[in-house]
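Aim 2, interim progress: modelling of the P1T-bound target.
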Amino acid sequence: MKEATKYIHAGTEPDPSTGAIMTPIYQTSTYVQAAPGKHKGYEYARSQNPTRTALERAFAEIENANYALAFSSGVAATDAVIKLLAPGDEVICANDMYGGTYRLFTKVFEKFGIKFIYVDTTKVSNISKAINNQTKLVWLETPTNPLMNITDISAVAAITKPKDILLAVDNTFASPYLQNPIDLGADIIMHSVTKYLGGHSDVIQGCLMMNSPELRDKLYFIQKSCGAVPGPMDCFLVLRGIKTLHVRMKAHCENGAKIAQWLRRHPKIGKVYWPGFEDHPGYAVAKKQMRDFGGMLSFVLKNDSVEEAMRVLSSTKLFSLAESLGGVESLINHPASMTHASIPKEERIKNGLTDSLIRLSVGIEDADDLIEDLNRAIG
Ligand code: P1T
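Predicted structure of the complex, ligand included:
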């Protein structure tokens, strides 16, 4: 099946009770049983809900996975993966990633005896060197948030597979339209559904996709036991969002490329972080494992002034100053004080995330208007 058809039909069938073409919002907490244990596959809505079932089917289809599970947020989905582990286990992860993931790892899970080792995963040899007998999971983000670093997923899978180490990829920045990590050898895909999959800045949600039935059973057990499930209304909104993912992503990529190239030519702009530049260190890998380069990018001003950056951040009109990304409308963000504030300053700076960095989530408005807005703000 071709992409466009897949996104429009994924997971959905006419509702069996009425024929409704859109999966209804089954706003219920429980299901009536004919006799104890005699039911229609639905017992209690933390464990199962038909709107969520349709969405989970759609999630699996769009990542070419056998199974998927929906969670109440992206961090709840990540939390479920780490709960597969036990005290003493070690996780190797990227030294550049979403600040909330770093906070979950360091502030919540370290105290339960799980160890997180942060390396520059763009050099796959750094992962090989960090592996020992305690290593149970490699957690990748590619492209990374916010520095747009690229890691070669199949090269990492070639290291983890023979050692029975799980490989999980946070595929939020790429979306399934641009990159399918399970096809590249990953065991688990995680998405902050809040972003491109939802697409309209109106839902907080996360999901996991996987091929192994054993892994699905373990993660389903965690999903229902810990209870971080999304409500049916949110599942409905995401089912609707997925139907236009391909159309939106094409526009995000087109606008992202135009803005990245325009910024690079601007005399007041310094480094622009975007993997579509041929001299980006991850360009060859991005070209190999992604279908296009997406709508996310970061940049610094040429004079690297934090005050100037703050002025630009407060001066745009179409780019709204806000956390989050992946919606149809453009956002501008200051990672150091907003999305990545939970990472200690010395750690941030060491890994290249400076106080002057500005991140853009390029929306699907007219690119000329977006460029005019940035041009006015940069001054
Ligand atoms: O916000 P939530 O749905 O819980 O997802 C967390 C998350 C996980 N992974 C990545 C790569 C993310 O970017 C996020 C959320 N990020 C933002 C809110 C942000 O503005 O970067």
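Residues 71 and 331 are 24 Å apart (CA to CA). The two ends are 48 Å apart (CA to CA).
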